[in-house]
Automatic annotation (TrEMBL):
InterPro entries: Ribosomal_Su5_D2-typ_SF, Ribosomal_uS9, Ribosomal_uS9_bac/plastid, Ribsml_uS5_D2-typ_fold_subgr. Pfam families: Ribosomal_S9. HAMAP family: Ribosomal_uS9_B. GO terms for molecular function: RNA binding; structural constituent of ribosome. Keywords: Ribonucleoprotein, Ribosomal protein. PANTHER family: RIBOSOMAL PROTEIN S9, SMALL RIBOSOMAL SUBUNIT PROTEIN US9M. One of its GO terms (cellular component) is cytosolic small ribosomal subunit. GO terms for biological process: translation. Belongs to the universal ribosomal protein uS9 family. This is Small ribosomal subunit protein uS9.
C-alpha cells in the first residue's frame, strides 16, 4: 500500500542561455526568494527585478503566491530570464487559462540564444588575428 503525499506547491523549470531555474510557487504564501535570498538583493538591477515579477504582474497574481527559486549557471541577466520563464511555466500549470496572456507576451518561449563557440585559428568566435605587414 503506497500512500501518495499531496504536493503543496507547483513547479516550473525555466531556462535562458546556460542558466536554469527551478521554480516552486506555493499558494497562500508571500515573497520571492532566489537561492534563499530576497530577489531584490539577488538581482541588484531594476530591469532584472522587473523581469522576475513580470509574469505575476501580467496575470495579477502577485499577492497569491510565495515563490522559491533555485537558479544556477550563466550570469545575472540570464538567470533573471530563466526565473521569468520558470514562473510563467508554473503559473500555467496552476491555471491553464493564463497561458494565452503569457504566450502573447512571450514569457513561455525559451530564449535559445547561446554564446557562439570559439573556432581554431581565430582569437575569439569571429575575431581574426591582427594582420602584420612585417
Amino acid at each position: 500500500m503506497a500512500t501518495t503525499k499531496e504536493k503543496k506547491y507547483i513547479e516550473g523549470i525555466g531556462g535562458r542561455k546556460s542558466a536554469t531555474a527551478r521554480v516552486r510557487i506555493t499558494p497562500g504564501e508571500k515573497g520571492i526568494k532566489i537561492n534563499d535570498v530576497d530577489y531584490k538583493k539577488y538581482f541588484p538591477l531594476v530591469r532584472q527585478q522587473i523581469a522576475v515579477t513580470a509574469p505575476l504582474k501580467l496575470t495579477e497574481t502577485s499577492d497569491e503566491f510565495g515563490i522559491s527559486v533555485h537558479v544556477k549557471g550563466s550570469g545575472l541577466s540570464g538567470q533573471a530570464g530563466a526565473v521569468r520563464h520558470g514562473i510563467a511555466r508554473a503559473l500555467v500549470k496552476w491555471n491553464e487559462e493564463l497561458r494565452k496572456k503569457l504566450k502573447k507576451e512571450g514569457f513561455l518561449t525559451r530564449d535559445s540564444r547561446m554564446v557562439e563557440r570559439k573556432k581554431y585559428g581565430l582569437r575569439k568566435a569571429r575575431r581574426r588575428p591582427q594582420w602584420s605587414k612585417r
